[in-house]
Amino acid sequence: MRCARTARTCGRLVLLLLLTATVLLTPAPRLTKTATSAPAPPAPDPALPTVGRAWPVGVRPPILRGWEPPATPYGRGHRGVDLAAPAGAPVRAVAAGRVSFAGRVAGKGVVSVELTGTGDPPLRATYEPVRASAKKGDEVEAGEVVGTVEASGSHCTGTCVHWGLRRGEAYLDPLSLLPPWLLHRGPSRLLPVLGVPLPS
């Protein structure tokens, strides 16, 4: 390569070309997690038992907001399901269990039920805002009333029940407790009755 400039200028040009080639040919550093990165949220339990035998409120209440697990333990999300329900409506245990808490938390009524036969630690269903009629230690059956919907304390625009589910510190989708026949209500169909004479 001929260099018509002074030796100093020519040397700078060669140095600049070498540095540019070094930067372009060096592979990009791999990104790794640092000690300050947020821990991953606990993975949902892949084998939740369908022990639910009743909706907490009504027969098939409208779901105002579904379960939206947060990306991080302290991230935004919705750690339960909001079910539309009028104030004063009965709130039922979805499955058999033992009441582990019945009282007030931050001014709202909360009832928690540890579900029978769901492992160690057991699944715990929680309902709020609820005026408790059951007390801590009560054994309840599926469908048994544990309280009534309170008129205030809900984070919904109207009255609703927030239904949550946890195993230890992990939040889970409470709808996974219900079997398909309770989740989906299709149209009623009348089947023919054979061998029965028509009324005269």
From TrEMBL:
Arranged from A to Z, the UniProt key words for this protein are:
Signal
InterPro entries, per database record? Cell_wall_metabolism_enzyme, Dup_hybrid_motif, M23ase_b-sheet_dom
What GO molecular function annotations does the UniProt record carry, in alphabetical order? metalloendopeptidase activity
* Residue ranges constituting the M23ase beta-sheet core domain according to the UniProt record: 77-174
- Which residues constitute the signal peptide according to the record? 1-32
Name the source's superkingdom: Bacteria
Q: Name one Pfam family in it.
A: Peptidase_M23
Q: Does the keyword Signal apply?
A: yes
Q: Does the record carry Signal as a key word?
A: yes
Name recorded for this polypeptide: Peptidase M23
Originating species: Streptomyces regalis
